[in-house]
Amino acid sequence: MDLLHSWGVELMVHLQTKYSRYEGLFSLASTVADLHTTFFCWFPIWFHLRRDTGLRLIWVAVLGDWLNLVLKWVLFGERPYWWVHETRFYRAERAPSLQQFPITCETGPGSPSGHAMGAAGVWYVMVTALLTIASEKSPPLLYKLLHMNLWILMGLVELVVCMSRVYVAAHFPHQVIAGVITGVLVAEAVSKVKWIYSASMKKYFFVTLFLTSFAVGFYLLLKAVGVDLLWTIEKAQKWCVRAEWVHMDTTPFASLLRNMGTLFGLGLGLHSPLYNSTKKQNTSATFKMGCIIVSLVFLQLLDGWTFSSENHMTFYFLSFSKSVVALLIPTTLVPWALCWMCEKKREDKNL
């Protein structure tokens, strides 16, 4: 593996040397590829335009990121920014110097890349949804042209995301390739499952409980036999050039609880009495656009809510709660509030 890692480091040095002018683009690509963008941006849009696609986005993102966590714990993948300092591969030679950035110092293992995996799964869902819509409304020639261009667009997006993760020294090239392949496989598998569109609150609860229990149980089991699955946190704190770049929200358990909060919040939103009272009242394009815009505004306000990571248990609880609320806003709270305002306005007119 050291030889494979060394090839990856050579590519990183090349990218950081020759393509430094694209640092802003690479940073933006990594930020947009984060599942945070799916939960706070893509989901509200798709949920109100095409409900099933919105649901599929969440299931693909959550299950994919959960699988990514388990695979990282199993594969024990190194990250470039600490590997170059600890490897004996270079021996007497001087190890290559890698630049670090504010998004470099993630605290989990490196393989497969979560950003590449998440972006691949999410974009696969969105592209296939757009093609389904196009097949219903477009002539064959236009559909073929759109089919080709959308897949090319997805390929370009994935290429930039993968390059960005390598550029910032967060991942080796083979890790981002593995992430893309795994992400597409997860998206394809989830797309074949039909019960996710009509799952009961009980099913949401038990799926959330199972995924959480499996991950925690797996961690405790390996810890009992002497395997520390949080070995990467110490490395991140040791080798990151700036302590403030090591963020608590990139730890494995923070990611797990954030995703479980998202899935549980989706279940609560879909089975809330408020949702049931509004889902058939307004289906106009104007109402849907209103829901999307207002949801995005409130989600940005919610996103500004940050909290201290000094107390881990409090931090994990607040992360879970914030994720629950983030799904309640577009599914239930905003549609209900807009319905209430419309009804109030109609009543005032009738007086």
Description:
- The chain is mostly helical.
- It is 75% helix and 0% strand.
- It has 14 helices and no strands.
- It has helices at residues 2-18, 23-33, 35-49, 51-75, 80-86, 114-137, 140-167, 173-191, 201-224, 231-239, 252-270, 273-278, 285-303, 312-350.
Helix residue percentage? over 70%
What is the molecular shape? globular
Low-confidence runs of at least 5 consecutive residues: none
Count of helical regions: 14
Largest sheet: none
Percent of residues in beta strands?
Answer: under 5%
From the structure above, extract its key features:
single chain; 351 residues; mainly alpha; 14 helices; globular
Secondary structure blueprint with pairings:
Blueprint: H1 2-18, H2 23-33, H3 35-49, H4 51-75, H5 80-86, H6 114-137, H7 140-167, H8 173-191, H9 201-224, H10 231-239, H11 252-270, H12 273-278, H13 285-303, H14 312-350
Helix pairs in contact: 2-7, 3-4, 3-13, 3-14, 4-6, 4-8, 4-11, 6-7, 6-8, 7-8, 9-11, 11-14, 13-14
Condensed summary:
The chain is mainly alpha-helical. The chain has 14 helices and no strands.
